Amino acid sequence: MAALSFAEIKGQDQALTLLKSVLAKRPTHCYLFTGPEGVGKKKTALSLAQYLNCPHAKLDACGICPSCVKIANNEHPDVFLIEPLGSSIKLEQVHSLTNVTALRSFEGGYQVIIIDDAHLLTEQAANSLLKILEEPKEKTVFILVTSKPEAILPTIRSRACQIKFNALSPETIIGILGDSAKDAAYLAAGSVKTAQDILHDEEFFPLRREVLSFNIEPHQKMSQIIEQCRAWKVNKAKALLILSFLSLWYRDLLIFRTSGNENLLINRDCLEEYKNYPYEADWIAVLELLRKYQGYLKQNVSPELTLIVCFSQISSLIGTL
Length: 321
Prior knowledge:
Strand order of the largest sheet: 2-3-4-1-5
Oligomer: single chain
CATH class of the largest domain: Alpha Beta
Order of helices and strands: HEHHEHEHEHEHHHHHHHHH
Number of domains: 2
Shape: elongated
Helix content: 40-55%
Strand content: 5-15%
Distance between the termini: 57 Å
C-alpha cells in the first residue's frame, strides 16, 4: 500500500484546514470525522495516525519512515482499526480496546484507535466506549468515522472534536478514478465509493437507460405500468435503485425548469430530454412522493407492488398544472 499523507486527500481542503488548526495547538484525545460515505474520512484518519507517529512530521507525515510505512501497510503495533463485524460493532470489540489502552505504546508514540462506521456501535459497545473516553489516557487518540453522526451517543459526540467532510465534486472524483469514471462521477452523489460501485456494476447503466426511457405520462394505463415493473424483476435493492434514478431525473428537471442552468444537472446526458419535456407538475410533490416510497421499500413491503403504486401516483401528478 502506498504511504498516506494529508497532501493525498483530495477535495477536502476545509476539513484539513480545521484539522491542522487543531493539531497546531495540541492533539485532542477524540476526533469525530463526519460526512458522506466514500469521501476520504477513513483515509484522513489513517493520515492522522501517520502524522501523530511520524518522527519527521512538520505540516505532514513524511510517508517514508518505518512508522509511516507500517501504518500504510496496516502493520503498526500502536494503530488499531475497528470495523463492524456483520451489521454492528460489538461490545467485545470495544472491550478489547480496554486491554490495549492499559498498556504503553510499543514504539513510544501515539496509540491511535480508528473506529470506522462508528454509528454501528451497539448500545452496550457505545456505553463501554464512553467509559474509556471519560478517562482519556495521555498519547491515546480515538478517531470515530461516520456518515450518520446523529446515531452516535450525544455524550460521545460532546467529547469529540468534530471534523466535517463534504461530498466531492464530480471533477475531484474523475481526478481520483480517471477519465473512464466520468459518467459514474456525475451520478455518485459526491462519493468515490459510490462511483466505484457504479463502475463495477455491469447492469447499472443499462437499467438506468431503461428506467429513464419509460416515460411516465399523465393518466398512464395501469396495464403499461404493471407490465414494465414486472419486466424489471425487482428485488428491494433494484427497486431502490430505480426510484433513485427517477428522483435524480425529476430533481434535474425541476432545477432546469427553474434556473435553466445545465451545469447544475446530474444527468447531463438528458439535457435534450429536459428541454423538450412536454408536461408540467408540482415537481417538489413528485420528489416527496418518491422519497416516501423509498422509505416504504426499506420496510417489509413488496418491491414490485411498491413500484407499481408509486409510478401510478406519479402519473396522476403529471400534467396537473
